Amino acid sequence: MERNALPAAGRILLTGASGQVGGELLKTLKPLGEVIAPARAEMDMASAASVREMIRAVRPRWIVNPGAYTAVDKAESEPELAYAINAEAVRVIGQEARAIGAGVVQFSTDYVFDGFASAPYRESDATNPVGVYGASKLAGEIALAESGTGHMVFRTSWVYGTRGKNFLLTILKLARERERLRIVADQHGAPTWSRDLAKMTAEVIGHCEEKARGRELADVLNDASGIYHAAGSGETTWHGFAAEAVRLQQRKEPGVRFAEIEAITTAEYPTPAKRPANSRMSCSKLKERFGWTMMDWRNSLREVMAEL
Question: Of 83, 133, 160, 228, which one is the catalytic site residue?
Answer without folding.
Answer: 133
